[in-house]
Amino acid sequence: MNAKLDSGVTTRPVTRQTFDDVLVPTYAPAAMVPVRASGLDLWDQSGKHYLDFTAGIAVTSLGHGHPLLVDALTRQINTLWHLGNGYTNEPVLRLALALTEATFADRAFFCNSGAEANEAALKLARKYAHTKFGPHKSRIVSCLASFHGRTLFTVSVGGQPKYTEGFEPLPQEINHIPYNDIACARAAITDDVAAVIVEPIQGEGGVVPGDPAFLKALRERCDETGALLIFDEVQSGVGRTGALYAYMECGVTPDILTSAKALGNGYPIGAMLTTATIAEHFNVGSHGTTYGGNPLAATVALNVLDTINTPSFLARVKQASAQIFANLTKLAADYPQLFGKVRGSGLLIGLPVAETFAGRAKDFTKAAESLGLMLLIAGPGVIRLAPALIVSDAQIAEADRIMRGAADAVLAAA
């Protein structure tokens, strides 16, 4: 037995300080340590209650510990955990059928995260372009302020230099254009472009909705040049906007779509969806993953999809969204010195801070946390709300009450 371990390793006391002592410092988590949650309710080590309007960054869209998912996962745990990729399994086949039946896609590839889904999409796009047109067609066009993952390839495709500093040399043949800029898009997408990747709603970049005219211009230009259009719906997908996927309401169908986050409600899974014609360029051995599409993840995702993809569920998302937008619009009107104009879609919502508090969105989320409300930021100047899609009217009202208290606290400390 390792001398560094003791017999109480699974129950030894740990605190927030333990993070600083033993984990690589890639994050700066909150001082409180969550230990238990149900729905949108969460409790920390001291027993303090919080209302969770983060959903683990738009992940737990059916809330923490959803009984249907707990039951499905428990049954699968007692049936079959994992197989090497020399075998398939029933849950992943059912999930692939459900996703292809619900979307434009004919084929699905499963992995473990949004970054891996985007990595697969970009690799497939280049392989398709090289095979069909030749190696000269390799350039990838993305948008400034975008976010597509943390692998070296996807972080280079993302349009935020702060995430690539220190990791050079970066992959080549990647260019970035301003989001929602049609003229720049048309100029950038030329015959040497293999793929254009875009978030229909920029999440990490500030919760900025894509202009339908911009997204349509990307589609048109890709059609003209033979480039593939990739929609990154890692954050906007699986009901978050009030549609199963955001592309369904913007009048544009991509060639490849990536999904993750809410698809597994906290169980790691990612998916790349595409057409049969494009998919055939990923032949046997050209790409893979050890854990992707395992029976446990696929079982959870299938039940998530089955629950969310109903007219009544998606209609409720839009109803809840309207209530929160109304509350935030009133909040911004009552505190103009603190907030700008609310934006977003469905239950992916951004509230910019005013110029006088530029770069200080974190001050507000910390104040809200101290009062029992968990919120996110989307860059230093935007407060982000991404509650579970099952959020109730009472919880929406409670979040509004706490946000007003937090606004008073921030102004008092200014």
Categorize the overall geometry. Answer: globular
CATH architecture descriptor name of the largest domain: 3-Layer(aba) Sandwich
Order of adjacent strands in the largest pleated sheet: 4-12-11-10-7-5-6
Radius of gyration equals 22 Å
What is the CATH H-level superfamily of the largest domain?
A: Type I PLP-dependent aspartate aminotransferase-like (Major domain)
Question: What are the defining features of this structure?
Answer:
seven-stranded mixed sheet, globular, single chain, Aspartate Aminotransferase, domain 2, 37% helix, Aspartate Aminotransferase, domain 1, 13 helices, 2 domains
Structure description:
The protein has 414 residues and is α/β, with parallel strands linked by helices. It has helices at 16-22, 55-58, 67-77, 90-102, 114-133, 152-157, 182-188, 212-225, 276-279, 295-308, 311-334, 361-370, 393-413, and strands at residues 34-38, 41-44, 49-52, 107-111, 139-143, 174-177, 193-198, 201-202, 208-209, 228-232, 256-259, 270-274, 343-345, 348-352, 373-374, 376-377, 382-385. Strands 4-12-11-10-7-5-6 form a 7-stranded mixed β-sheet, with helices on both faces. A 4-stranded mixed β-sheet has the order 1-2-3-15. The longest helix is centred in the C-terminal third of the chain and has 24 residues, at 311-334. One of its GO terms (biological process) is L-arginine biosynthetic process.
Quick overview:
By secondary structure, the chain is of the alpha/beta class. The protein has 13 helices and 17 strands.
